[in-house]
Amino acid sequence: SKAVTVPALLAMRQAGEKIAMLTCYDSSFAALMDRCGVDVLLVGDSLGNVCQGHSSTLPVTLADIAYHTACVARGNQTALLIADMPFGTYATPQAAFDNAVRLMQAGAQMVKIEGGEWLSETVRFLTDRAIPVCAHLGLTPQSVHQLGGFKVQGKTTEAADRLKSDALSLQVAGASMLVLEAIPSALGKEVTDKLTIPTIGIGAGPDCAGQVLVMHDMLGVFPGRKARFVKNFMEGETSIDAAVRAYIRAVKDKSFPGPEHCF
Ligand code: KIV
Ligand code: NA
User: Fold this and answer.
1) Ligand nearest to the CA of 21
2) What is the ipTM, given to two decimal places?
3) Annotated catalytic residue: which of 158, 181, 237, 260?
4) Residue 11 confidence (pLDDT) above 80
5) Is the pTM of this model over 0.95?
6) What's the CATH number of domain 6-261, 3.20.20.60, 2.60.40.10, 3.90.1150.10, 3.30.70.20?
7) 44: CA distance to ligand 2 center in Å?
8) 184-229: per-residue pLDDT in tens?
9) Which residues are annotated as a binding site for 3-methyl-2-oxobutanoate?
10) Residue 190 annotated in active site
11) Minimal-distance CA residue to ligand 1 atom 2
12) DSSP per residue over the chain, as a string?
């Protein structure tokens, strides 16, 4: 099949075709997910939790993400490959560029960074230099110590207004995509309607342009407590292949996320 590109994702959003994204950390799973038809693979810093056993994403290094990105790139053929920029690697536009180059050279086609309006200058700096950027708002796990835990965000009017203006600033600065994590469904819809770029939800309601889950969560492998937005797609299936296909089908036909996965 045809390679998924940044313009192709925008066209999917415009056509109302939901974007199915999964995290991935190694070559064999990349080949499997790609074969099943996943649109986007994310080498998430969630690898700190699911691969390394840490209780946050803060210990993950640039070398860790570069290593896993190279592994995933070798197994992938057509999905768009996004790499997370780890905690502390994008504090200034120049640092962000230098570090993003390493991830692009490892095989990433886009990098993801967590934060609001303060990152607009960085998004502009990267996109001017041919590095596509995915932004990430709402529950941003690298900010866990400021947020005081892994909690739903954007619940007050002020927080919701702030998130909406952050989203617009990041789009204006050149972001190609926006992940929205753990926010009320109504806010997920408002942000999606306000933007032209695709929004990708994880606990952000059914109206986002696409959905993402951590692979260990959607396969029921992660031993930790299960977040409300997680669905185990292995239930009722007899292979990982079938579970991944069931996830993609459920995203595309809008049966996932259901009300029980939303805030
Ligand atoms: O690291 C990750 O897996 C992520 C997704 C949950 C969006 O950032
Ligand atoms: Na992440």
Assistant:
1) 1
2) 0.99
3) 181
4) yes
5) yes
6) 3.20.20.60
7) 4
8) 999 999 999 999 999 999 999 999 999 999 999 999 998 888 999 9
9) 45-46, 84, 112
10) no
11) 44
12) -PPP-HHHHHHHHHHTPPEEEEE--SHHHHHHHHHHT-SEEEE-TTHHHHTT--SSSTT--HHHHHHHHHHHHHH-SSSEEEEEPPTTS-SSHHHHHHHHHHHHHTT-SEEEEE-SGGGHHHHHHHHHTT--EEEEEES-GGGHHHHTSS-----SHHHHHHHHHHHHHHHHHT-SEEEEES--HHHHHHHHHH-SSPEEEESS-TTSSEEEE-HHHHTT---SPPPTT---TTTT-SSHHHHHHHHHHHHHTT-SS-GGG--
pLDDT in tens, 96-128: 999 999 999 999 999 999 999 999 999 999 999
Q: Is 202 in the pocket of ligand 1 (CB under 6 A)?
A: yes
Model pLDDT, residue 98: 99
179 CB within 6 A, ligand 1: yes
pLDDT at 35: 98
| Spans of all domains in the chain | 6-261
